[in-house]
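Forum: Protein Structure Q&A
Topic: Joint prediction for protein chains with partners

I've read a bunch of threads here and the consensus seems to be that you should model interacting components together rather than docking separate models afterwards. I'd like to see that in practice. Below is the full input, 683 residues plus whatever partners are listed. Could one of the regulars post the assembled result?
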Amino acid sequence: MLRNDAYRTTVLAVFLATATFLTSAFRPAPERPFTDDMDRSIHPGDDFYRYSNGGWMKTATIPAGQTTFDNRAALTERANRQVRSLIEGAASAHSAPGSITQKVGDYYTSFVDQHAIAAKGMKPLASEMAAIAAIHDKTSLSAYLGGTLNSEVDGLTSNADHVLGVWINQGLEDAEHNLPHLWQGGLGLPDRDHYLDSSTQMTELRAKYRAHIAAMLKLAGVGDSDQRAGRVLALETEIARAFAPDADAADVFKQNNPWKRTDFNLKAPGMDWDAYFKSAGLAGQTDFLVWQRSAVTGVAALVAHKSIDDWQDYLRLHLLDHYAAVLPKAVADEHFAFFGRVLSGATEASSRESLAIAATNGALPQAVAQLYTQRHFPPDAKARAEAMAADLIAAFHARISNLTWMSTPTKQKALAKLAACKVFIGYPDAWIDYSALDVLRDDAFGNMRRAEAFNRLRNLARLKQSVDPIDWPLHVQAPGAVIMFSPNAEFFSAAILQPPYFDAQGDTASNYGSAGAGMAHEISHSFDELGNIYDAQGRLDRWWSDADRDAYHALGAKLAAQLDKDCPFTDACVKGKQVLKESIADLAGLVVAHDAYVASLKGKPDPVIGGLTGEQRFFLAFAQRWRRLQSEAALRKQIATDTHLPPEPRSDSVRNVDAWYEVFQVPPGARLYLKPEDRAKIW
Ligand SMILES: [Zn+2]
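Posted by a regular:
Agreed with the consensus. Here's the joint model:
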């Protein structure tokens, strides 16, 4: 069970930052003392954001083609640069056959070799196209669809890359066993609304998609492609109609539908489920969790009612779109013309090299990760970040124990959940063994097919394994963090634990104020409005009492009212309610990380650096973490829509913390001063 801060509120994982690996701009990380980034002519109590960042704001610039620049962007650029260098290095290393370096290097090399791809033409698709052509009845169609069951989904997927997706994870009530969680999927357009919304914009978009379908069918050698494109779009529209509406798709209680194997025949007639699950590799599976019932019943009915011809064209289209990147240029260009240019608004395709890096990361994530951690996150860096995480957990223990709004029985449940929470730092203890996966230097298509088959077998094998989160739900070499509510675990990638966020060789105070506060923010979600529906083992269970909830909301209302008064523009103020959940987590992160930092000193004073005490540097790093250059339009959009505060009010969270007043000697009358009774205290 994952929750994504950026996109949805009640499904389940958090990515602090997701690297796309597609930006290619090279920007050396600024190596300069943190004091140069400050403006010490400003009193910290009047404008802590500019006191901390005034120097940086005078010299930093927004990269060409972007609308914002911040620490997250700097971190992403740094990781992209590091990963690019490692993969390019592997490509030219000519390492021993079968080694990790050979596989990474050859995957990349085959992908950029467009001459070899062009020379093969459409031949690599021949056997799959023949299999589609051989479909002749409901059973053979079901068997083919089962073979496409996509295992590359997780708790955040809203539209799996085939008619159904499967995610192997523990049950929502049974924490002892892994189950196949079945997911809706199979739409070419991003979601249900793209098919059903009757606005002019969506109608035009669908016309362009129909033209794309026709172009792809033509490339596949199908005659009468215009007529057929209309029927494929009609089939996808019916699949979309079966999708769960967004509000339902975001409600985990509605997703908790345990089905026995026998239920499929009764509840979802139309599909030959024996044939389907046999070719999906799930023939012996008796228990399933169906996340969107309507999608399963809807697709099954369409198997029975739609013509085999329409299904075959649909499958040809999706085969081409799925493998477009490793097929001749005409296919890749048509794919980009619609998905890049029309749907995403991109003006030009990413370079072949950038696409190859993304593809290599996707196919061999932990092979690249091994190269990454050897170079950029050695064991001593991991040990230092783990020590910080342990300090944070200890600080949470004390904070939860002393909460005034939680009843004693609820506190006991929270402490049990904290004790059971596993925090994974940097990289997994055991790597995926890629020895069974062959990667050839001249076979881009075959490499992609084999990697998909390899990953799928690995995923399905987890049905027979323990529920321990041995599988990392994020890429080690991309800056990111994920909360898993089920099982109860948190993950912080090696690439997020890099400067300017975390410096394994750097100042402890700055690390706790930046990465420490960020990690504590994420951990707090396991105990707040988001996490209080999952117990210590990650099972669905509402463990707050009504009285706890009321008391929490009363404290939150005070913070929301405080934030409502923060107006970045005369005509646009922060919307306290909209940003409340995240602002409470910010405050939790700040106070817990501060406790953890002070405890880490074990009574000894931290040295003064640049004229600043350790506690001053802690708060400074917190404010520097949020700095961002952005256009007025970008800031206005953030105020209107984002669930996170804009940079300046976010940095101003410090005004709710008593210690900040002490260490910067902020007097009553300073602009940011709040009377002690007006400071928000929740965690
Ligand atoms: Zn958050």
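The chain has 28 helices and ten strands.
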